[in-house]
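Quality-control log, excerpt.
Job 1 of 2 completed; input and output follow.
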Amino acid sequence: MKIMCLGGAGRICRETAFDLAEFSDFEEIAIADIDEAAGAEVVSEIGSGRVKFVKLDISDHDASVEKMKDYDIVADGTTIGINGRTSAIIADAGCHAVNLNGMGDENNYADAFKEKGLVFVPGFGMTPGVTQMMVMHASARLDAIDTVRISHGAYRPFAFSRSIAETTTYEYDPLLESRVVFENGKFVQVPPFARPREVLLPEPYGRTEQYIIPHSETHTVAESLQSKGVRLVEVRGTWPPENMRLIRALYEWGILRNDKITVNGAEAGIMDCLSEYLIHSKEGTETELYGYALHVEVVGIKDDETLRYTLYHTHPASDGSVPGWEGLRAYTRNVGIPMSIAAQLIAHGRVLERRTGLLIPEYAFDPADVFHELGRRGIRIHEKIERESEGVSCK
């Protein structure tokens, strides 16, 4: 089989390609991107005869379909804002697919994937993606579910790439309608910095204050656990402290609205101008601590007893003690590797109940398969079970 890494020259999707080259049995791995120089760099760095560069411009739909249709699976590492366009290309090309975000316009093409017998899993990085696997692992061991709280710490610079700058400002957009929690059968919209909660992440991250963010898990977990009576689903996140201080100030000063301003006769959004500065600045592209930390709590009933499952993950340190995990790669590998794992599971037919169409992660994979593959890369999932009434560890 052959796989195309769409946006494969980007900092995160190239990690997917690196992982595919090391762990997969795909006969060809294409780095598809509009940036020829960056794509050639990835091909050279991998240094495998199985890897090639394909120049692809998604603004040309028909030409993109023509190039893509030679591949069996697409790992789509492009940004939220263009995931509708890339999903249309993938559907017309007749490929299986997985992407990182799960928050774009993928659902518009659900029927097309289903009619062609294809599998498309939207949103399979660390979060969304591995977080849903953690939730499903815990929920399978409970008779009924009351509360699911998903949290993460993404320790990376504010704007080490344009896609990351877009994600950063998107999540705290004051006008964003999709920032919701699921509560008592309804999706409730909340503003930026809503429902602060202290979350203890594993070292070296420690205690963090986190806020509600707009992630697809709110919707997918509510759907997948409906039969178990889930009452509350909340998704929170945080970035390095200096990032959070900046985003709070941008929100309080109205800059995140991205109002239009005129500078030297040219009109531009004020947040767009600031993002452009950050993308080209030391402050926007560096941070002190790099890495990723997931934290998931599931509270429910088992044999008339209330239990709390807490799952979190760890990975090799970013301090250079483990080759390949230095600095920013401690973040980018955490995001890019799960997409590689998902693509390989699809390729090997390890999709739950052999389903087809657009499948949320909960309906796509067995958590045990994902956890096993993550462990092979040094990414570990940890679990603690407590009696909610006593706070006493059972395991």
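Job 2 of 2 completed; input and output follow.
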Amino acid sequence: MELTFYLRRVIEAILIGTVVSALTTPLSIKLAFKFDIIDRPRDDRRVHNRPIPRFGGMGIFVGSMVAMIIPATMNNNIRIAMMGGLLMYALGVADDIADLRPAVKFAGQLAIATLMYSMGIRIRFFNALIAPAAGSKTVVFLGAGLAYVVTVLWIVGITNAVNLMDGLDGLAAGSMAIMALSLAYVAYIHGIRLGMMPVCIALCAIAGGCIGFLPYNFSPAKTFMGDGGALYLGYMISVLSVISPLKRATMVGAIIPMLVLAVPIFDTAFAMLRRMARQESIMKADKGHLHHHLMAAGFGQRRSVLIIYGIVGIMGVVAVLISRALYKDAFFLALIALLFLMIIIVPKQPKKDIMSILTYDTAKAPEELHEDAEVPPAEDDEEQE
């Protein structure tokens, strides 16, 4: 079978990203030890008990950037996105080295997102979720001020959501590879007609960078991607979903990136609600994320990661179905994913109200976790003997 021009470019992007990332990651491990960019377990939130290099994002960054030269020759917006990716990666590396204050890191993210908006990377409109008549499409255009706010919130929000997801060996890298390939497939099936192929190839480059890094990061991890890798990945996925015309594919195509990124968005939103319910800062770290719940349930790192991979994959399929206007199929599949998420976050405790579930933290002592469980009446001493 003869490969088309764009299919060859897709395969090349994945292969180049994977190979370059796989070759660069060992170098990043050496540099991490040389410059003491090491993650040392200092609190009970971390699931590892030994110092591990956290400069592995260098492999993802170099691998995907080299592979993105292919689509960058086709689309100016890809080149702008790559420039912002360089800045976001530098910000993350600075945090890995100097442990920046959250306010400083957040200000840097806002500045980068604002720069991207000023250079034309912006969300200008949404397609309405419900058309007024069969076969018609309603487009809601945003004013300049609202477009700026929506664009910046999207870029900064997704960037931080991916960063929060980086809590278990291989979780963020594998999940982002699945998300990138899902969005790439949506772009590919709508093809040249909507001008989506450069974005498709760029997303494949991102996936390749993650795939090449994953053998070094899957449990037991030899290296972590650090904030440099996590912020870079979150930024690139958010920006590529903005510059692509994915929202033109179908009437409800505007929500396709949100569906693909549903797991990190859900986890981040739930974390914010949880912390507000406790009257704590939304920036305060805790052990209430999805992967913490799975670990507390006894699944271990590898199985916990694979379970989340499965949910991410389901939502990727939902996005593909939506892009093909198969709304009923997508709806029921999304309900299945939501059911799995509910199973994960609801603790194994009877008679718990919604507030107790919302504020649940797996870091609690076992006796606190089961304080409301029904205890059978004690038997007399003779029977116990």
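Post-run check on job 2. The CA atoms of residues 87 and 112 lie 7 Å apart.
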